Amino acid sequence: MQSPEASTAATPTQIHLAIAAFADEVVGTLAHLFAYVGALALFAILALAALGQLPSLRDDEPAEKPEWSVADRSQPAFALSRLDSSEKTASYVILRHPEGGRRDVMRWTGEADKPVAELEIYREGGEFDVARPATADLAVHMGLDEATPLEQAGLIDTKFGPVALFRPTGTVEAARACLGYLKRSEEPALQISGFSCQGDTLPARRAAIACTLNRLTLLISGNEPKLAELFAHAELKRRSCAPQGSSDWLLGAANAQLRGAL
Predict the structure, then answer these.
(1) Which of 11, 106, 110, 154 has the fewest CB atoms within 10 Å distance of its CB?
(2) Strand 161-168 relative to strand 216-218: parallel, antiparallel, unpaired?
(3) Cα maximum dimension of the chain
(4) Please, which residues have CB within 8 angstroms of residue 239's CB and are 6 or more apart in sequence?
(5) pTM over 0.70
(6) Going along the chain, which residue ranges are E strands?
(7) SS3 of 161, please?
(8) Would you give the end-to-end CA distance of the chain in angstroms?
(9) Which pLDDT tens digit goes with each residue over 176-209?
């Protein structure tokens, strides 16, 4: 049997042990709590990281590029001066791109609404791809496959300067095929292109294209003083349309080796 002194002496020890046990429980509980909170934070971080990766995962998929759309409310900026009052008016379509580009397209059709000529004035915007061949769209506009190779078919003289001509490569009908044409301007950033099937001979088709370009006039320039300046200077070199087949419009019909930027 313990003495009262021994019982009294043991009491502080028991209290100390109880406090130590309680402290251990508190520490253990806090450790579990911190571990739980840490796990939740880790899951939250992983979830946010996964959500943050979703856009990049979607970027791996082909993104839809902005498309050209018809601008019904835009006013025509160009016109062709008429040769006579009976001349049929061409259809005029204006296309705009969200990145700033604008295309003014004039088309002429013949029997059964078959396209016989087209003239496009393309004012470049942020969508312009410098790596894309300039003649890629030209082949499509001529009713050919985009991959159809085109060969140079000489130059014609116009009020805008020399203009390069193109025709399908390596075909039996190349001599009688429709002619495409392309003229680029760096300042302002402008491209004049199109095709013509008018005329029964190659010189006649060349003369028809030259006549079309010499009749092209600017109606409104908007906020583009460089565009107005380009057409003002071109008007100083304007000629009247020569008879089809006249060599006055031609610059070396046999010259298919063009140098410099188109």
Answers:
(1) 11
(2) unpaired
(3) 141
(4) 159, 214, 248
(5) no
(6) 69-70, 78-80, 91-96, 102-109, 115-123, 150-158, 161-168, 179-185, 190-196, 216-218, 250-251
(7) strand
(8) 117
(9) 678 999 999 998 999 999 999 888 888 999 999 9
